[in-house]
Amino acid sequence: MTRLLPFIGFLLLAGLLGFGIWWNTGHDQTAIPSPLINKPAPDFKLPLLYEPAQTVSRASLMGKPYLLNVFASWCIECGVEHPVLQAEAPTLGVALVGYNYKDAPDDAKAWLATHGNPYSVLMADTSGQTAIDFGVYAAPESFLVDAHGVIRYKHIGPITMDVVNDELKPAIASLQQEPH
Amino acid sequence: MRTLPRILLLALLLFAGAAFAQAIEPLPFKDHVEELRYQHLTAQLRCPMCQNETLADSNAPIARDLRNQIFQLMQHGRSDAQIKQYLVDRYSEFVLYDPPVARNTWLLWFGPLLILLAGAGTVFATIRKRSRAVTPATSPTAHATVDEGDDW
């Protein structure tokens, strides 16, 4: 039995390290779970990208659920998710609100002219100050906010068709089943 | 004729200094104490984007924004604990390099101590077993059993 002890120790260690590898392949190491889930969205007031004289706020968006999509023209992954948003925005069942993050307004407009504009409301946070309140650290990020202004779901990284079907649409469906 | 290259070199050195000053984005600290406090605080916080760097070290845009935010909060008289809480509220406890001692971090904090205790227990048990086995080691049969355990 004592002869086997080192071997058993080795097996335990190999098992632990193997578990670590298996666990890490199934989890995005760069995604930090947001502490804002199921908490009221931070209060914000931002100008519209196309009409900077007008502003959008948390209060003005209250009443209907919406998907807040943080994007920028300089963000490469945003170009990856953009065709998905273009195709899926009409079928989501909630408004797609664009959040242009730390972008030069002209760059953002040129980018949207090239790739299309799927957003029903589009605000601009040029300084990135409000984004800190949302805990944004890397575009693209998306927040599902319910009719009461509470953040219900967050996705970090590009929205793919798998994310739409496996996470986003079920999350929206559960919002719509709730009594208003 | 030899002065021209020297002037050029001097000019280059001066420009190098200017470039460096921009790279470290100097903040208008009111005194050295405040600067040290800022440096100490940003070194304790983790950049959410490039996850193995502190906010002080990181060059990521979000790290720069958060450093500025920390500086602004310091100007508004917030304490270190309040500033840390501000970031935890937005970016979760992930931003703290030292996780707080809580129910879900007990294993993290005291796990190494448990392993150390288990190791000490094993060493203690082995020493006791051997000292018992060695005492009657005058007979050849007892000697053989001791050898068995020492093979590896």
Main sheet overview of chain A: 5 strands, mixed
Q: How far apart lie the N and C ends of chain B?
A: 79 Å
- In percent, how helical is the residue content of chain A? 40-55%
The average pLDDT score of chain B comes to: 81
The H/E string of chain A reads HEEHEHEHEHEEH
Widest sheet: strand ordering of chain A: 5-4-3-6-7
CATH-level-2 architecture of the largest domain in chain B: Orthogonal Bundle
Shape category of chain B: elongated
CATH domain topology of the largest domain in chain A: Glutaredoxin
The proportion of residues in beta strands of chain B is under 5%
Number of structurally distinct domains of chain A: 2
Question: What is the C-alpha radius of gyration of chain A, as a whole number of Å?
Answer: 21 Å
Distance between the termini of chain A: 66 Å
C-alpha Rg of chain B (nearest Å): 30 Å
Report the mean per-residue pLDDT of chain A as an integer. 92
Strand residue percentage of chain A: 15-25%
The low-pLDDT segments of chain A are none
CATH homologous superfamily descriptor of the largest domain in chain A: Glutaredoxin
